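Record Alanine--tRNA ligase, 952 aa.
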Amino acid sequence: MASSYDGPWPARTVRDGFFNYFRDKNHTFVPSSSTIPYDDPTLLFANAGMNQYKSIFLGTVDPNSERGKLKRAFNSQKCIRAGGKHNDLEDVGKDSYHHTFFEMLGNWSFGDYFKKEAISFSWEVLTKLYKLPKERLYVTYFSGDPENNIPCDEESRQMWLALGMDPTHVIPSKFNFWEMGATGPCGPCSEIHVDRIGGREVPHLVDGDDPTVVEIWNNVFIQFNREEDGSLKLLPAKHVDTGMGFERIVSVLQNKMSNYDTDIFTPIMLKIQELTGARPYTGKFGAEDVDGIDTAYRVVADHVRTLSFALSDGGVPNNVGRGYVLRRVLRRGCRYVRKKLGAPIGTFFSSLMPVVVEQMGDVFPELRKKQNAIKEILDEEEESFSRTLDRGEKLFDLYAARAKEASSKELNGADVWRLYDTFGFPVDLTRLMAEELGLTINENEFEAAQERSKEASKGTFKKDKVDTVKLDVHDLAALEKNDAIPKSDDSPKFQLGNITAQVKGIYYNREFLTSTANIPDGANFGILLDRTSFYAEAGGQEHDTGNIVIDGTCDFEVTNVQAYSGYVLHSGHLKYGHLNIGDEVISSYDELRRWPLRSNHTATHILNFCLREILGDHIDQKGSLVAPTKLRFDFSHKAQIALPELAKIESMSVNWIKKNVKVYSRDVDLESGFKIPGLRAVFGEAYPDPVRVVVLGHDVDEIAKDLENPRWRSTSIEFCGGTHVAKTGDIKDFVIIEESGIAKGIRRITAVTGQEAQEATRIANEFKSRLDRIEASSGKEKDAGIKALTLELGQADISVLVKAELRDRLAAIRKAFDKQIKEKEAALNKAAVDALVTHFSTNPDSEGYFTRIDVDGNSKILQNVVAQGKKLGKAVYVFSVDVAAGKVAHANYVPDAVRTEGFDARVWASKVTEILGGKAGGKEDGAQGMGVNVGEVENAVKVARETYPVRK
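=>
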């Protein structure tokens, strides 16, 4: 056993002690799987230590893989319970032990040791390693379920007693039966609880939700399989799955009643105080936490851990599934920071995150590796929410005041939906804010408003496809004569954040109206503002989306933005309320959509420059697309770009990103702009005068003072009216996913940046790992793996360079495999035919050859053996089993002399089919078939021999 330690038990020592103990017990350390379970669509997040071993428990693991060879394992699994079946999000902060992120220490046995050893290990760790007094420990075991014919786990009870436990501390429980799902592996479990206080007898508090008696460890004994009909069958291999909550065992060993009082959290609490200037954390709960500041400390400390780990594993906040959960977690935390801790938000969580990295980066190195990426994502999300939090809270206060004026304890559900739809307030955040004021939410009204919004969106989507709002030449002529509707000032599109603006025009059904009052609900129409922060589609960059809002009064959802001779038309539909000419509104583009658009536009400039540098000055832009998820660039070039050149282009682009140079932009007069060496402009494009110039790494003012200096050719300089990042490092990453020809002399490159690039790299690495496993496999498994990967690789959006490398490897593996199979088949064929020849050479008077051949069910070889028998004029019936497919191939031959006496090969095959099942057919002289009863092969051989007529 690992040497014991007397305390004071810092968290790191607790974890190390557990690791060292099981390492000494011949367990293999398996690094924690990702909190994002990419290969398990049934989970939002990894929520238990056993998740990564599911394939072993289910028996679907590749026996030749590293995982398939595991017998004993241990680790600390990163777990998140913030969505789906296991969701502790709304409990965090309210008590001493709920967390959305936690570590689960675990040890596993896969068909190796079972109950006795597992129980003994946990007892030794707790009483000898951690030196917990056994008098403070209580255990539960499964008491049985007579109704469903599941026996009591008397084995576990006896094992605990044999270790010296007081019988009154060994407690039966009907709940101690663990199941993975409705069907599949399952079994009894034995939980270990500890009395935090000691010096008393408290078996009645076990499983009683008493904070002084808590469960710390669970041993699950997987010995049954739940069948489709609900019955249980013993598994051929029994497994052990255990889990001990790291935060909880640390609190017990450090003699703290709250997990948040341990050194797992105290460094985070101190940093929160430093960043916010709030009073120190005092550990109060419920009514005692009068100002709610202690609750805020706990929420923020928990949430920064969840976000740090989820984002380090590739999670991305967005509006769908786990991405939405992460957005909710961040926004919930931001609200506590602002409301309770009194600190500004925008970069708060990224400033707090380094404490988590410092504490846990050694155990989980992915935190250190991804620290910069985590910071960037947190800042983007937090900065976006910061601009709506104040507005949303003011509106919430208005709704709450309205409810109190009506003597209601319930918030209107439609108002709660608006808080989400317009300001991004997750409903659980609004519910939390309501609880603080003693209010509830009318859930029925909320669901009805949500459903109405969904239906309206469906209608708008259809209208967008067939009834796009456009200004034609007559509309523009009318606008030019109308002084009340000026051309739009869209310069704010180059800045961050919302602006106030005034409604100048409402355009519906080819008319300019003074109000939206008579426009039908859900109809598409256009709005013209005196000034706008929205980007109208231009220069290949997609338009912005967002909202034009009067807080609490109306919300116009902008789904399209187009510019017509200086008039920027915002198309969309009203979610609620009405607009009138002259109304002051907030112009609020979707910042989270704009972020990747900026990155992709600057990356397009970098790509354009690198193409010229690598391929030559003949490169001219022929078209482009800048979308949130990708960029596309069309250019003149006569031939396909060779992979080495493509690699140089990608590498040079990535280097520009790594250099993190500033991106400058300013208007210059058109004539001066064209004088700049190396300037890139689209041939035939009509540019405004003055024209906006975008430059990487050099101030435009510096260039303007020395226009014709040849050194400007060493950087990217373009005429461009698009939006761009502040510095190239904001792009994060760049991956070319396609290079193709679209017309004679025109090539196209498609690339991804940021999160999409990281996801492309992650998928590519998965392909590499799968290919490694395929290369190490054999037989039909290898063949199936090659086929599946070839198909998936062709459809994958990954680096075109990696794809080419993987295709080459796959082709080489396929060639070697086919050669191996061909050689093996030839050897098997020769051996099988030689065996028949030898049989008749040794036994010249033998009537026939009836046997099983070990050729993996290869029908072709069976036919070759039959053909050899035919040459010799001898009867043959041969069989071969395909174990993997669970089938039996069989074939026969009846010599002419026997057939003329009335014996038919088809009848002979039918006798065998009665034994093997399946089907058979053929001709009078020879038949073949495929049976399904693998276990009956020897009997079938016997029947074939006995039913063949012996000639006298």
